[in-house]
Design goal:
12 helices; six-stranded parallel β-sheet; alpha/beta; 2 domains; globular; Rossmann fold
């Protein structure tokens, strides 16, 4: 028997809400989610959108402001892993296993990166001169695409245009990047990843020939970092599921509630996400790290829902979904179909 979703939401004081796959589908806000968040905020709940986006909070708010999302209406605060990275960079405390005080970095992926602006870290074009590599959004420009073998080009799709004449390509696989990653491992360069998400749904550009604008699943920095680690490279991750970003968000929740951080355990806190390996595992990691219980609420509208569908899991079966989650040793407290007040709650 399904629980009443409104009752489930009423039990919590603080909601940490993932963005991509929960409220944003890569093209637009998922139907009903903005109204749900607004209702939660209006009822006095603290709603913090917690995204693995590698750009700063101010940048992402500026980007999505034209869609009508507004602080104080649909959310209390917005935290990105890029914002947490910026705080680390500003403090000058970034370190790696073999390099305690790095000074220079090179970019892998999209070259339009502002995270290091007004910090002590210097950008260099030469990999050899860099102390570390920053994994930016894994995209390729036209000249990079042109040198790839045909079988690797088949993984690429147009996402947007860098200029009037030059396109930017996303990839549905890490394969086009493996050659460069192997070279970086050979040079023993540590890698910094500020978006541990392995995949994301994106909208495709009207600048290409296809008329199919359905959101596409493409690789993101987490997949690059995972591949690099498997090749033997050192990787430092910032973002979900790692505790640092949760500490940052929970400190904000404490300030908004007027409660000392060490007393947050007296509140009921939930992380609503679409991915077991980042959102739900992150909630479990935060619980272990800080002794503050953070429940995981999985929505089936995103990444893990797609994985379950591909695996043939019966979405309507509580046992089947639990078994799937248990097989990955990450079991959420609740599973709902999507983030709407009248959502079906499986358990």
């Amino acid at each position: 028997m399904l629980m009443i979703s409104g009752k489930l939401f009423s039990e919590y004081d603080v909601f940490l809400v993932d963005m991509f796959g929960v409220i944003w589908d890569g093209v637009s806000w998922i139907d009903g989610t903005m109204e749900t968040l607004a209702a939660l905020v209006k009822s006095g709940k603290i709603v913090i959108i917690l995204s693995n986006a590698s750009i700063s909070t101010s940048q992402i708010l500026k980007k999505y402001a034209p869609t009508g999302v507004k602080q104080g209406v649909q959310f209390s605060e917005f935290v990105t892993s890029g914002e947490v990275l910026n705080s680390i960079l500003q403090s000058g405390t970034l370190s790696f296993y073999n390099i305690k005080l790095p000074k220079t970095y090179a970019l892998l992926g999209n070259q339009n990166c502002s995270n290091f602006r007004n910090t002590k870290y210097l950008h260099v074009d030469s990999i050899g001169e860099a102390d570390f590599i920053y994994a930016s959004i894994p995209q390729l420009y036209g000249e990079q695409k042109a040198v790839l073998p045909k079988e690797l080009q088949d993984f690429l799709i147009v996402s947007n245009m860098r200029s009037e004449d030059e396109m930017v390509w996303d990839s549905t696989s890490v394969e086009p990047f493996l050659g460069q990653l192997k070279e970086l491992v050979a040079k023993k360069k540590p890698m910094l990843v500020a978006n541990p998400d392995k995949f994301a749904f994106i909208g495709t550009s009207s600048s290409h020939d296809s008329n199919d604008y359905t959101p596409k699943l493409v690789v993101r920095q987490g997949a690059i970092g995972e591949a690099y680690a498997k090749l033997g490279g050192e990787v430092k991750f910032i973002g979900k599921p790692y505790p640092e970003v949760y500490r940052y968000a929970l400190n904000i929740a404490a300030e908004l509630h007027g409660t000392p951080f060490e007393r947050l355990g007296g509140l009921k806190i939930a992380m609503i996400g679409d991915t077991l390996e980042t959102d739900i595992l992150g909630a479990q990691n935060a619980t272990s790290e800080f002794g503050i219980k953070v429940d995981g609420i999985l929505v089936k509208s995103g990444i893990s829902g797609q994985d379950m569908f591909n695996a043939g899991v019966d979405f309507t079966s509580k046992q089947a979904v639990r078994e799937y989650c248990s097989s990955r040793t990450i079991v959420p407290e609740h599973v709902i179909d999507k983030l709407i007040l009248d959502a079906d709650v499986l358990f």
